[in-house]
Design brief:
- This is CRAL/TRIO domain-containing protein.
- It holds the Pfam family CRAL_TRIO.
- By secondary structure, the protein is of the alpha+beta class.
- The strands form five sheets. The protein has a five-stranded mixed sheet with strand order 1-2-3-4-5.
- It starts with 23 loop residues before the first helix and ends with a helix.
Length: 575
């Protein structure tokens, strides 16, 4: 048999498959996608209605194409659903009107931007899961219940979560796109890195956070596709390899493939491959003074690119105020960061800073650029973290109890897998190996001779369908044999003593039992309804002599045996 033909798959790892680095096929797919969106009324090109910019920038459209493997029709379906969802939930209005304190309460329960970027210029977020304890979640739920945010078709807590994603796509990504000290300044930033710290998180807390984490994951997958890049999980507890199999089912497979699970020893060496040490928080081995809950601590390159006007202060550093912030284009096409939302019910609109670069809306979101190929060695640092993940629990169990000489020749469990001596204590008792010179090597019809020295001798031959025993009296051919002895136990080992098996009731007997139960239940029900007299003692029922009519009815029931069987099969399935 000839080996299957292998086809090359284009990389979607940044900057490949992003604006400025599309293949000819990907560019054609983008053009077709924009055409479909325009024809269906979901996209307006530049110059429509005297508006100089298109309704959606190319990099945003490319996120949907990457999520759908550059199939325009599939990308359009998701894009259409998202546009209708945004309109239905008033996303444009929500981000500009949400209460700033509600926004801040929500921000503290989800990944937070550190104000730093990785070596490619992609923003780095930190998420400490231990802060999501029952006390903090309960306090958050209480504020949700008293929220003044106008609810549309979704819960208030989900509206708050939408606002956080809007901040990522409307403010953080455009800002990082405007910083030109990166290797590919022609390509807008449209993703984020996440350091997820799960140290000090117990198994119960993990389970209680299931819906909380799923909300964010499902939202990103459905309406903010391809906004997640690498996810580094830090501080995994000892039980994590055991629960990984069901934890990863909370997320879509593409997200799972981007997850790196790092031990304490691998944490800083791995993080520093992708992120400069000055941009890694100190608790993870870097030099950055950043704690979860703080506002972003801007790196020097970002500080250099902006001019502050009305900043807040944090540890002698200029920072943005809490709440949502948007970029607005001035008449001279310069960009201004404006704090929006509401404070004490009043709209907020305060200029915070201006960009000192020559970036405009088109530069922040991406315009028409010439595509250039990406060298293969530039994609050497993978975005796929599957190799760092523990095996599924059920896969690890396959190797429990095996010695090193019998391990499979393929990938073996990592050191994070459950040790064999621990896991085996929870398994069923292992039978001692029997000393027998006649080891069975097969169960086919040609191997009966090898079963002669065992208690299985002749059973398989006699248990063929032609020789099966009719044990239930109703035509069902079955044959029972002891599986513990088939081809394994030699005859010098006695069979376990077993009591003779009582014959199972036939379908007719089962029908009579069911009928009796129904009659008994109905009798009690009728007595309670009509007010039957209460008796201190239960009288022994007197057997009633059946009338000729009743005996005739019994004969008809006995004659209707197939119909009764059919009824039982329909109710309980064939036994």
């Amino acid at each position: 048999m000839s080996a299957p033909q292998l086809n090359r798959v284009d990389s979607f790892q940044y900057p490949a498959a992003h604006l400025g680095h599309l293949t000819d096929a990907q560019q054609a797919a983008l053009d077709a996608f924009k055409q479909v969106c325009q024809e269906e009324g979901y996209y307006k090109p530049a110059g429509t209605g005297a508006v100089p910019e298109p309704s959606h920038d190319d990099e945003t459209l490319l996120r949907y194409l990457r999520a759908r493997r550059f199939i325009p029709q599939e990308a359009f379906k998701q894009f259409k659903d998202t546009e209708e969802w945004r309109k239905e939930n008033h996303l444009e209005e929500l981000y500009g009107t949400i209460d700033v304190n509600e926004y801040e309460q929500c921000r503290r329960l989800y990944p937070q931007w550190t104000g730093r970027r990785d070596k490619r210029g992609i923003p780095v977020y930190v998420f400490e899961v231990a802060h999501l304890n029952s006390k903090n979640i309960a306090a958050y739920e209480k504020t949700v219940a008293s929220s003044k945010t106008v609810s549309h078709s979704v819960p208030t807590k989900m509206l708050r979560l939408f606002a956080l994603y809007e901040n990522l796509t409307r403010f953080v990504m455009p800002l990082c796109s405007a910083i030109t000290d990166r290797k590919h300044p022609e390509t807008p930033i449209s993703q984020s890195n996440n350091i997820v710290d799960i140290s000090k998180v117990g198994l119960k807390q993990f389970w209680n956070l299931k819906s909380h984490m799923q909300d964010a994951s499902q939202l990103a997958t459905a309406h903010y596709p391809e906004t997640l890049d690498r996810i580094f999980i830090i501080g995994a507890p000892g039980f994590f390899p055991t629960v990984w199999g069901w934890v990863k089912r909370w997320f879509d497979p593409i997200t799972v493939s981007k997850i790196f699970i790092l031990s304490q020893a691998d944490m800083f060496p791995t993080l520093s491959q992708y992120i400069d040490p000055d941009n890694i928080p100190k608790k993870y081995g870097g030099n950055l003074d950043f704690e979860f809950g703080m506002m972003p601590v801007l790196e020097p390159a970002i500080e250099k690119a902006i001019k502050w006007e009305n900043p807040e202060n944090q540890d002698s550093h200029n920072i943005w105020p809490i709440g949502p912030i948007s970029w607005e284009q001035n008449s001279d096409r310069t960009m201004t960061a404006v704090a929006v939302g509401t404070e004490a019910g009043a709209p907020r609109k305060r200029v915070i800073c201006k960009l000192e670069t020559d970036a405009n809306i088109r530069a922040l979101h991406g315009g028409a650029v010439t595509n250039t190929p990406i060298p293969e060695d530039e994609l050497g640092l993978t975005t796929v973290g599957t190799a760092t993940q523990p095996p599924d629990t059920n896969e690890a169990d396959l190797y429990v109890g095996q010695d090193s000489t019998s391990s499979p020749q393929t990938d073996t469990p990592t050191s994070s897998a459950t040790p064999a001596n621990e896991a085996s204590s929870a398994m069923l008792p292992i039978r001692e190996q029997q000393q027998s010179s006649a080891m069975r090597s097969g169960t086919s019809s040609t191997k009966y001779a090898q079963q002669d020295p065992t208690h299985a001798s002749g059973q398989l031959a006699e248990g063929t369908p032609d020789a099966a025993l009719d044990v239930d009296g109703h035509g069902t051919k079955t044959f029972a044999m002891e599986p513990n002895t088939v081809g394994q136990a030699p005859k010098d080992m006695p069979l376990p003593d077993t009591e003779p098996e009582q014959p199972q009731p036939g379908y007719l007997d089962q029908a009579k039992q069911v009928a009796g139960q129904v009659v008994e239940t109905a009798t009690h029900a009728v007595e309670s309804l009509v007010g039957a007299e209460k008796k201190e003692e239960v009288e022994k029922p007197v057997e009633k002599t059946k009338s000729p009519e009743e005996r005739e009815m019994d004969a008809k029931i006995d004659a209707a045996k197939p119909a009764v069987e059919g009824f039982l099969r329909g109710q309980y399935g064939s036994k």
